[in-house]
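INFO  loader      accepted 1 record
INFO  loader      residues=247
INFO  predictor   begin
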Amino acid sequence: MDTSSTDKVDQQLKELADKHGFLRPDRGDLDNPPAPWREGKPDYRKADLLYFKGKTMNHKPGSLELIVENLVKKWEMEGSHLPDYMTWTTINKEKYRVQANGQKVFSGKESSTIGYYNWLLSTASKELYDSEQHTFESSHSVFPGAFPDGFAWEVLQVFSGPPKVAFSWRHWSNFSGEYKGRVGEGQLVEMHGFAIATVDEQLLIGQLEVYYKPDEFLKAMEGKIPISDVSSGKEILGTGCPIHREK
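INFO  predictor   done
INFO  writer      dumping tokens
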């Protein structure tokens, strides 16, 4: 973003935070990373603005929901921008493993090497996304072009506390870019799912199991099913009078 765009985003973030009591996601101190960045310091301002504008929940400070949400957001940041998983601060390095939809279990080394797109989409139909044909780098070039404003994520509900944290989640953006030659018109695109994070006393992730239906999202992106089939969230800011759904 250029300076004028950055200033505009910063202003919008401040206005929404002041007016509605929204909290910016806590991904740690990005100015002091535990290791060198993969490709420079990440900038989450546009993603945070999308999160503010589109989220359906507004969890209270200190709530388990907000703690889990920030933990996952920081974990995602580290997985995307710190190449060596042994430098991540969100995981139990000796135990860390991940799994999508009850299928293959990926070790910490393998999952960090291929990237979270590839292990999360490893159960998708190969004609829609073949994770075996993608590297970390190529997988991270597939979706940003479709979602130039980022892809926001929120915790919906937490069903159990540590050590086995079970929670539902929502992932969304506006399809305003291009995906496989198909140009979006700003339509809302969503994914919903469930996850179980096994954590230790320091809330470090030892195992993460994620459950969702990747094919529905991918079919909608390709125009094989209506995008409205994967759009059901009701944003807090969708009406003139925001209703804060707090947990």
